[in-house]
Amino acid sequence: MKLTLEVAIRKFAQPVTASSDLDLLLEAAGDAKIVLLGEATHGTSEFYQWRAALSKRLIQEKGFSLIAVEGDWPSSYQVHRYINGFTDGNENAADLLAQSFTRWPRWMWANAEIADFIDWLKDFNAAESKKIGFYGIDVYSLWESMEEVIRYLTDVDPAGGDVQLAKQAFSCFDPSNREPEKYAISYATFSTSCVEEVTRLLASIQSNPERYANEEEADLNLQINSLVAKNAEEYYRAMLRSGADSWNIRDGHMVETINELRKYHGPDARIIIWEHNTHIGDARATDMKNDGMVNVGQLLREQNPPEDVYAIGFGSYEGTVIAAESWEAPYEEMPLPPAQKNSWEELLHRTGAHDKQLIFDDSNRQLFDRWAGHRAVGVVYHPEREAYGNYVPTMISKRYDAFLFFDQTTALEPL
Asked: Are residues 197 and 143 in contact, defined by beta-carbon separation less than 8 angstroms?
C-alpha cells in the first residue's frame, strides 16, 4: 500500500542543522558534473547561506570550479575578476557588489550574504592553484554587453572589421534609448530587427578566436557578451508576443551560456548553478509544461546523462523576505505568510516544524510523485494575495533530486 505523504515525509526526511548534515546530499550527488541549487524567493537569507555552504563543500570535496548565477554577465564578471586577482584595486567584496550590480533588483546579488561568500572565494583562490570562476548567465544586460564588446574590440584592433561590424550592429538600438520596451515596440511597428547584424558579429568573433587575447579570459568575456546581445535582442522582441516565447528564449540563453562555459573550461569542469526554483526544477514536473514552457533544469537533463545533473530545490514555511510591490519599486522587508494548506511547504511543516532535507532516489521517488502546490516568490510580491498566484502545481520528486526545507526564514541583508 502506498504511504500517505505525511508518513513518507516523516520516514525519509533528515534534519539540516549544520554543514555536516550536507554529507547525505554530497553522497547522493555522486559524480554529477552539474549541480543546480534553487531558491523559492530572491530575498531569503537562509537560501543564500545554505547554497554557499553547499557550494563550498562541492568546491573543496568534489572539485567544482565554476559558479553560474541568475545575474547579468558584465556585473558578475567584475566579481570573477575580483576573486581571481585580475584587478589591481583595493575593493572589498561588499563595495564591489554594490558598484557592480546597479540594475534593479540590485538586492539579488548586492547583499551581505553574497559578500561573505565572495570573500571566501577570493581567499580560496589565493590559496589554491585551481581557480574558481563566477559568472552571470542571464539575458538582460543588452546595452552593458554591447558596450563591453565595442570597448574590447576597439582596444584590441581599432581598425579591424569586427569593431566596425559591432558599431553597425549596435547602432540600430540607438532610438530605443536603452529601454527594452521601446525597442520591442519599434520592432513591432516598423518590422525592423537588429538580430541579423548581431548574429553576423557573433559568428565573426566565434570563427576568428585567434584575433583575441586569452589573457584573463578576455576571449570568453567577448564571446559571452556578444551572445547576450544576440539573444537579448530576440528576448526583447518576444516580450510583445503572447505565450511562452520570451521565457523559453531566456532559459535557452542561460543553458547556451552554461554550455559555452563548460566547453571553454574543458570536459572535466564541474559547474554549480544558482537560480530560482522555477529555472532549476524540471518544468516537466510542473504545470509550466501545459503552457509550452521549458527551463534550465529540463534542458540540462535532456542534454546530459542522468548521472551528470543533480537538482536541489529550496523552500520555507514562513518568515520574512525582501521583495518589491512593483517592478523597479524600492525593495521592502515583507512578511512571508504561513504556506498554503496542503502545499509541499505546509506538508513539510505539518510533519515537524524544523529544517530538513528530502533526498529522492529509486527507493522512495514514487512516494512523492504526487501533485501539490509549491510556493514561488519573485522580485515583485504581494503577501496578501499570494494564494492566487504564488503556488506552482508540482511533482516534487520529479522536479528535483533533493529538497531543502527551512521552517522559519528571514529576509536577506541588502547592501
From this structure: no
Among 2, 20, 54, CA closest to 402: 54
Among candidate residues 128, 95, 32, 120, the one with its CA nearest the CA of residue 402: 32
C-alpha grid cell, residue 404: 531543502
Point out the least confidently predicted range of 29-33, 125-129, 208-212: 208-212
- DSSP element (H, E) containing 304: none
Alpha carbon distance 339, 342 (integer Å) = 9
Q: pLDDT tens across 317-353, in order?
A: 999 999 999 988 999 999 999 999 999 999 999 999 9
- Cα(292)–Cα(154) distance, integer angstroms: 42
Angle between helices 93-100 and 112-127 (to 10 degrees): 120
Strands (E), 183-338: 271-274, 309-323, 332-336
Asked whether the beta carbons of 307 and 270 are under 8 A apart, the reply is: no
CB atoms within 10 A of CB 18: 8
Residue 14 bridge partners (DSSP): 357
Q: Is 85 left (phi over 0), alpha (psi -120 to 50) or beta?
A: left
At 48, the amino acid letter reads Y
In 3-state terms the chain splits into helix, strand, coil percentages (rounded to 5) of 55, 15, 30
Q: Using the CB atoms, write b or e for 218-254: b if 16+ within 10 Å.
A: ebbbbbbbbbbbbbbbbbbbbbeeeebbbbbbbbbbb
Query: Would you say 321 and 333 are in contact if contact means Cβ atoms under 8 Å apart?
Result: yes
Report the CATH fold assignment for 5-64+270-409: EreA/ChaN-like  fold (3.40.1660)
Cβ pair 150, 167 in contact under 8 A: yes
Distance CA 255, CA 121 (A): 24
Could you report the per-residue pLDDT of 79-95, keeping only the tens digit for each?
999 999 887 766 799 99
Cβ–Cβ < 8 Å for 204, 162: yes
What span, in angstroms and rounded, lies between the C-alpha atoms of 154 and 271?
A: 32
Q: Which residue has the cell 550574504?
A: 113
Residue type, 20: S
The verdict on pTM exceeding 0.85 is yes
Which three three-digit cell numbers place residue 400?
528535483
